[in-house]
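Team,

Forwarding the record for the chain on the shared tracking sheet. I've put the sequence and predicted structure together so nobody has to dig through attachments.
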Amino acid sequence: MRIRIIILLFGALIMVSCADEGKVGDAKGSQDHLLYATIWFQRSPEMKAIFYQGYNLATMRLAEFTKLKTAKPKAVVVDIDETMLDNSPFEAQQIIDNSGYTAERWRKWTSLAKANALPGAVEFTNFCDSLGVEVFYVSNRKVTEVDVTVKNLDSLGFSFARTENMLFKEEVSSKKSRRDKISEKFEIVLLIGDNLNDLSEVFENRGVDWGASVVEQNRKEFGNRFIMLPNPMYGNWENSIFKGSDSLSDYQKREARLKVIYGI
């Protein structure tokens, strides 16, 4: 009888261990959610096609806007990361190393100034320059990253790759105040980004529907003043998954992701 009890207890311990191992496995694979998105961004021709489509549309819209008379000189506002520059190698390295995002890892990446240009991005800034339209890079990179970013952009042939055209994050993530500063001297005719918040402050408070209703209310601006580019790897849309919490374990994050998808 004693032997039977010992065997049963041993079996129970193995089952608990296996259950815990499943959770640990999720933690070890915590960056796997980035895998398909990163492969798509790096390898799919569809990604390139969408970027070319976006910048072709931006070129056509800008050509039309330059015919309009404005009281102030015209300007275009662009985001940098996953809009002008491709940081997918940074995302890929997180998967390879099985390491999450940290500010230190990000600084090491940007300090290399080796991000590639995204399809159509360089040509678009050069087109702006040819029309006499100023380009401002409004990014949530930190102000300490301005020099390395200018170096990166300049090495790739981007126009307006100079410090005075970089408006980086100082205190708040919202880009409204920086856009307002540009608007003091320029007429912003076009905004380009991979995140809705890059385009307007109206998208910052997304609500329970993830901001779908706000997009619907502003749908006429997309392809007009707003040019939206694809980024399946990360963005403010993720906040709706985790409901603003930044203290979830990898296992809890996986469970949260599963809860927001719907099947047949």
